[in-house]
Design a protein that fits this description.
Shape: rod-shaped
Distance between the termini: 18 Å
Structural class: alpha+beta
Order of helices and strands: HHEEEEEEEEEH
Strand order of the largest sheet: 2-9-8-4-5
Number of helices: 3
Strand content: 25-35%
Number of strands: 9
């Protein structure tokens, strides 16, 4: 049986399966490795920049929120490491305080964060401070919210893929059950 001689239920089922296959391919194509991990989109100071004095903090901004597990920022300069306290992660921004009155010179920032999917990413950037940092009082670190906390409203991409798979599987099973019921009744 081909074309219009097929029962309407069979044609409907084939169309449904075709649509679900295309949807599954689209979800798979959009969830490739590049989409699964955070990307550093900016930093302050910017990579390679020269700044008038050593900043009070280094700020890294990513394209997506991260989780606090494994977040690390090491800042080394002419006198060694100058980071103070733990890095603070809020949504997609990591802030690392630096020592007051840190010396002028070349600095290297080595960072690592964990994407919502659990994969760590890391990188290095540099900047040059033309003058020593201002002598400023140390401030208490702010509490760090965890982006993976269910109360934050952030849902990982892979969870959406699992939900889509369950919905598609249920739809196919439902269509088959309807088809079987109709063929028994006819």
């Amino acid at each position: 049986m081909t074309g219009r001689h097929q029962p309407a239920v069979v044609r409907w089922r084939r169309r449904l399966l075709a649509v679900l296959a295309v949807a599954a391919l689209a979800v798979g194509a959009s969830a490739g490795p590049a989409a699964a991990h955070n990307v550093l989109i900016s930093s302050s100071p910017a990579d390679g920049a020269s700044v008038p004095q050593t900043p009070a903090a280094v700020v890294l901004t990513f394209d997506e929120p991260a989780i606090s597990m494994g977040t690390q920022v090491l800042v080394s300069g002419p006198t060694g490491e100058v980071q103070r306290g733990s890095p603070r992660l809020v949504d997609n921004t990591v802030t690392q305080d630096l020592a007051p009155a840190a010396a002028a010179g070349a600095y290297t920032v080595t960072w690592r964060v964990t994407s919502l999917d659990g994969h760590p990413i890391s990188g290095t950037l540099t900047f040059t401070a033309l003058g020593a940092g201002a002598d400023r009082p140390a401030r208490a670190p702010a509490p760090t919210p965890d982006a993976a906390d269910p109360s934050s409203g952030s849902i990982p991409w892979w969870l959406w893929a699992v939900v889509a798979f369950v919905v598609a599987t249920t739809a196919v099973a439902g269509a088959r059950a309807i088809s079987r019921a109709r063929s028994r009744g006819a």
